[in-house]
Amino acid sequence: NAGVTQTPKFQVLKTGQSMTLQCAQDMNHEYMSWYRQDPGMGLRLIHYSVGAGITDQGEVPNGYNVSRSTTEDFPLRLLSAAPSQTSVYFCASSYHSGGTEKLFFGSGTQLSVL
Amino acid sequence: AQKITQTQPGMFVQEKEAVTLDCTYDTSDPSYGLFWYKQPSSGEMIFLIYQGSYDQQNATEGRYSLNFQKARKSANLVISASQLGDSAMYFCAMKGDTGRRALTFGSGTRLQVQP
User: Fold this and answer.
1) Which of B36, B37, B75 is nearest to B53 (CA)?
2) Hey, are the CB atoms on B91 and A108 less than 8 Å from each other?
3) B contact test, residue of A101, A105, A110 with most B CBs within 10 A
4) B38-66: per-residue pLDDT in tens?
5) Among positive and negative, which fits the CA dihedral B93, A98, B64, B31?
6) Are B21 and B77 in contact (CB under 8 A)?
7) What is the pLDDT of residues B2-23, one digit of tens each?
8) A9 DSSP 8-state letter
């Protein structure tokens, strides 16, 4: 099973460039989210989605856009990259069943902005 | 607002011994869930264990158990019979009683298992 697939794994951008981080899941989960992890820190929520067509901001949304046109895909767009956006980005999808919650992460994208 | 606190930046444990990683939380939600994730040096986030706030018993998953003390707002992870492969960062996280299915993470504890 593919689970949550993120591409690319590594990316280097120049300040001001834009790009899209791709995230796809094949588990038919309604809920998807994007996190960033800075060195020595836990993950912080950027944006999330509770279903196709519905997105909302998390803890650190500035400089990022998302859309959710399908259940499977949840891309994260950097509009004008800044060095402060150098980080590792994780996409996740989750479900809740039988009193248990499970959140599955992709393998991460390491982004450097010069 | 929710908050997770992990007060141990780093821990050492001898192979085959048990270790407890501390986690305290703060939330005003009546219902919530607590998670532990392992992040090895390769970077992926690996789900370890989940505890719901209304669960009567502490969660267990193999060598992992969660010592849930609701009145103290603590959710410590206990790893029994430590192995060298347990060396990693460990993150405590919680999900509140909202629709967003997103987690609030602590800053993590780096565990090193010594032979």
Assistant:
1) B75
2) no
3) A101
4) 999 998 999 999 999 998 899 999 999 99
5) positive
6) yes
7) 899 999 999 999 999 999 999 9
8) S
